[in-house]
Amino acid sequence: MIDRSHAFPVTRQARELGISRGSVYYPPRPTSAADLAIMRRIDELQLDFPFAGSRMLRDLLAGEGVKVGWLHVSTLMKKMAIEAIYRRPNTSKPAPGNKIDPYLLRKLVVTRPNQVWATDIT
Question: What predicted TM-score, i.e. pTM, was given to this entire model?
Fold first, then answer.
């Protein structure tokens, strides 16, 4: 995609393509063999325990003799695009019996100053 011999500078080519300049100058490092082995095992454990987060997976790996921190496990999970499955709070649904107040100024035309006042108690 980036042509270093083109008349446009690399900076402009990267901007036109919508990519970061840093990704042009610094090629990504390959994943180490040790991390690939850990990622493979995390994938297997995630299939057995889909509710396991990074800390539980760290404990399961430690039981197998693999010493790795939960932050590294979390980073590898993000790289693999996996996450724990658990029930999340449903905050967008109103509580049963919640009364929605009517908007009283809907048909009022505001034509002069100080005709309508508002307050916020948050």
Answer: 0.60
